[in-house]
Amino acid sequence: MAKVSRLAEESSAFTPQNPFLPGCIVVATLGNPRDKFWGMILALAPEGLSMSGIELAGFEDFVLMVKEGELFRPSVVFFPMHRIERLELDLPDGNLPSLSERFSGKTGLDPAAVLGSQLASRPKRQGGAANHPPGDRK
Predict the structure, then answer these.
(1) Backbone CA torsion sign across 42, 57, 75, 135
(2) CATH tag for 6-113 (out of 2.60.40.10, 2.40.128.630, 3.40.1440.10, 2.30.30.100)
């Protein structure tokens, strides 16, 4: 059976009919401009996709930085739905390992833990206020 991050496995809503849940590691193919992004789903809604991850072109550099213990934080991004051309689970393809498996094999770390670390270090909001300057709250 294919590996999916622990967050997705622990979710009672995870089913083969609903595989794209927060915590799943995916590759997003984007249009206008064309790009690919590897990371963990934070939220998927009709408005778009929130992810913690990196541009796929920087994957090998990311792995090397993490392996060498350099400080690196994945990006937390939102892609509006009109930019998303394709969303695929990061799963192995025959004998080819998934990106997550490659990451784990080279670093010894769980990619979901590394990609989720950005969220754990974020300051929490106080009093339910959004991240707006004091004079900009509505």
Answers:
(1) negative
(2) 2.30.30.100
pLDDT digits (tens, 9 = 90+) for 70-83: 888 889 999 999 99
Q: Inform me whether the pLDDT recorded for 97 exceeds 50.
A: yes
- Quick one: how far is CA 88 from the chain centroid? 12
The predicted model scores a pTM of 0.74
Give the start-to-end residue ranges of the domains of the chain.
6-113
